[in-house]
Amino acid sequence: MISLAGGNPDLTSLPLTALGKSAQAIIAQTGQSALQYGAGQGTEELRTQICALMAMEGIIDASPDNVAVTIGSQSALDTITKILCNPGDTILTDEATYMGALGTFSGYQTDVQPVRTDGDGLIPEELELRIRALQDAGKRIKFLYIIPNFNNPTGITLAARRRDRVAQICRAANIFVVEDNPYGLLRFGGERLPALRATNRRGVIYLGSFSKIFSPGLRIGWALLPPPLVQKFLILGGSSTLCPPALNQMLVSAYLRDFDWQAHLAAAVATYQLRRDAMLAALDRCMPAEVTWTKPEGGFFIWLTLPKSIDTHALVHRALDDNVAFFHGAAFLPVPQRSNQLRLAFSAIPAETIAVGVQRLSRVICDAIGMAGGNAAQPARDAGTDPDEP
Amino acid sequence: MISLAGGNPDLTSLPLTALGKSAQAIIAQTGQSALQYGAGQGTEELRTQICALMAMEGIIDASPDNVAVTIGSQSALDTITKILCNPGDTILTDEATYMGALGTFSGYQTDVQPVRTDGDGLIPEELELRIRALQDAGKRIKFLYIIPNFNNPTGITLAARRRDRVAQICRAANIFVVEDNPYGLLRFGGERLPALRATNRRGVIYLGSFSKIFSPGLRIGWALLPPPLVQKFLILGGSSTLCPPALNQMLVSAYLRDFDWQAHLAAAVATYQLRRDAMLAALDRCMPAEVTWTKPEGGFFIWLTLPKSIDTHALVHRALDDNVAFFHGAAFLPVPQRSNQLRLAFSAIPAETIAVGVQRLSRVICDAIGMAGGNAAQPARDAGTDPDEP
User: Considering only CA atoms, which of A207, A209, A212 is closest in space to residue A265?
Assistant: First the structure.
């Protein structure tokens, strides 16, 4: 089975032996605090390091006082939703967005509404129209949830020229922006784009995570909050998880302080870039002409669009029968509906395996197009042979 | 400053050097999984160990399939409340209960109603009357939240003969029992009482934690769920925290598997018992006759009752001026009201320090009684001298 489904980070570039020694020293020397309850907001050291990290994304005015360390950015999003939303309130999102966020929003019985996007991300004019239409209809819109860099699932990046515009539209409509940026430092080339939060202090709640740039298993993320929200966030966040784990915070701090973490990250990013290239090449080689896909400049994901007649949910089991897994598009849609799109992750498996997986998937898709259209399947441009199969 | 406020566990009996080595080995040898995303339900190994642990509390029919590992039991309680309650729904509790639970309940805008208790815990007849009265008034009661062993804040234990009765009353009224049992293994003598869950499988949701018997800083707790709730719990729990931290689970598993953890726990319990004895002796020696207190058989806390005329909230700052801290009673009351009670924790500080702290507090209380009654303060039985003060 080749899984192109899960968006796990690749951890092979981590210095595990040295990290093990760090953990040993933390427990042996400071176990009385590393294993004890800690502050609900997180350690001062880590919050200060997080501010330095956010400066790499253009946020240079963050204070550790306004940072809350959380159980991954997932629990930050959970607390934000709990603070801002009552049942029935509306949340805006990209046309397709992180399914874990949709799960959180659904848990609070909110009404989630997508805004149209194109290859440059959310379309500001569409955002403006959508807000007006929803507010005219009496909806209480609480925030826009957006993954501006290498969106999950589409891989699309919100264009630089749109960023301030999106923030300003929301500000004018009295709607927070919740900017979820786990992938920002995973860019394969070119300039990093500044976060929306960089130039919009008051209206943007910024979520960050160590899950993609270090370790998801430690479950350490954070929120950078507008000052009026900090106390409420800490009270309601504390009522969900009490405090983030001290040992994990100290290990992240040690990694940022004592290791050449940027070199390890650069090695991981180089790996992701190779894998993206392998996936794009394999798509180009194997997929029928009716299929298109995004070309992400970073992150973990590529988003495929099939002919409108194809329901990708129906392909999941056929693909599993052919030993390849993917996520069907409907899982990422705020409003349940049929989808002719699907997500592939290139982060977690070697380039050669990616090529084989894409080839298997292309056969499933060709068959489906053939059946849907009543025609013979469009042959792949260069089907090659699958070395795993007879 | 002597703090009798915080209920931190004492970690001095932990084998920190050896635990550090365990963490090192986990990261160096299995870092690819210890630092990676894991299953939302938690590892199979830890869930199996948790079942063995619950057998020590009389629960012998638990399956790992029905256990969910959580971020402390706090996040289990958060998820349970999210699953079971809509805004306005009613939750029943002991007369005084864990303030962190009250914070969770308040975050979901529930209506929390106390049930009368005595020295043997919740009074079954009062529970029955209260349920009937509330249901007659049209309230939707969703669960009874109860800490049966060494309650936080009162230290009171629900008597053995009341346990099944409480569970049966709730079952008959179609109300879940949420049994929160972080302190059950911290008994100073006599037989452990079986958990309510031991003989009531269907109606009891059982919450456990490693925070008091191993380490709170790892943030590992769990819920044992009735089978029909498991899927919903995993979905909504996942939308809050995605998955519990893998490294932390593996370290808890190593502690339970490779260490003589019961010997370390016995050493910690012996320490708590000494401290409880020191606090009871100091209370007996220093407190005026108008003050009474509970005599807990385990756990971390003693609950003081002052004359009705005293508002303990007003004493907090006076005590801080005299360099002693406690938690005032109102913090633990489901319905906001004035309280003449207060909580002292004996878990976290040495016996000699406890004696000094109680002596300081006795002077604050004597002064308050003197002022409230318009009389001279009732002299402490044996005021002694405070070695920290001139």
Answer: A212
A271 touches chain B (CB under 8 A): no
Compute how many other C-beta atoms are within 10 angstroms of the C-beta atom of residue A260. Answer: 9
CB within 8 Å of chain A, chain B residues 332-371: none
If phi over 0 gives left and psi between -120 and 50 gives alpha, with beta otherwise, what is residue A121? left
Indicate the residue type of B9.
Answer: P
ipTM of the prediction: 0.93
Q: Is B160 on the interface with A (CB under 8 A)?
A: no
What structural domains does chain A harbor? 2-8+263-373 (3.90.1150.10), 37-258 (3.40.640.10)
- The distance between the two most distant Cα atoms of chain B, rounded to a whole number of Å, is 70
Concatenated DSSP letters for A256-277? HHHS-HHHHHHHHHHHHHHHHH
Per-residue DSSP letter, A330: G
- Helical residues (DSSP H) of chain A, grouped into ranges: 16-34, 44-55, 72-84, 99-107, 124-136, 160-172, 227-241, 246-258, 261-286, 312-321, 351-373
Our CA-based measurement puts residue B120 at a distance from the nearest CA of chain A, in whole angstroms, of: 28
Q: Which of A23, A37, A235 minimises the CB distance to B217?
A: A37
Strands A67-71 and A220-224: antiparallel
Q: Is B262 helix (H, G, I), strand (E, B) or coil?
A: helix
Instruction: Tell me the pLDDT tens digit for each residue of B207-235.
Output: 999 999 999 999 999 999 999 999 999 99
- What residues contact B354, with CB distance under 8 A and at least 6 apart? B2, B4, B275, B278, B279, B282, B346
CA distance B28 to B251: 13
Check A216 against B35: CB less than 8 A apart. Answer: yes
Q: Residues B305, B190: contact at Cβ < 8 Å?
A: no
Stated as kind and residue range, the H or E segment containing B342 is strand B341-345
Is-contact B220 B249, C-beta < 8 A? yes
Mutate to test the interface with B, among A8, A108, A242 (most CBs of B within 10 A): A242
**pLDDT (0 to 100) of residue A383:** 41
Q: What is the pLDDT of residue A288?
A: 96
What does the DSSP assignment read for A104-127?
HHHHTT-EEEE--EETTEE-HHHH
CA distance linking residue A220 with residue B366, whole number of Å? 47
Tokens describing residue A195: 């976060």
How far is residue B191's CA from residue B57's CA, in Å, rounded to a whole number?
10
Mutate to test the interface with A, among B13, B102, B241, B349 (most CBs of A within 10 A): B241
pLDDT at residue A389 in the model = 33
Q: How confident is the model at residue A1 (pLDDT cuts 50, 70, 90)?
A: very high
Which residues, numbered 188 to 247 in chain B, qualify as contacts with chain A under a Cβ-Cβ cut-off of 8 Å? 211, 215-219, 235-236, 238-247
Q: Determine how β-strand B324-325 pairs with β-strand A121-122.
A: unpaired
